[in-house]
Amino acid sequence: MPADGRDGRKAEVDPKLLELLACPLTKGPLTWDPERGELVSRVAKLAYPVRDGIPIMLPSEARTISAEDMLAPPPPRLGGPS
User: What kind of fold does domain 15-71 have according to CATH?
Assistant: First the structure.
């Protein structure tokens, strides 16, 4: 089920903003999951929601990633040279 903003549109985040963001707990990289509209920290096992194009980087708002989610291939990493 695609993630929606409050107005019913699919959530999106500016790619330049994504390059600057890091997990607030681990300070590690985040990956963008466009299907769920979340920023994922695989190290912290948390998925941060994006509402109206704004990442909500509060651990209290994050969803814990399930074991099933951890088995799925990770979405592409954000930013930086490979």
Answer: N-terminal domain of TfIIb (2.20.25)
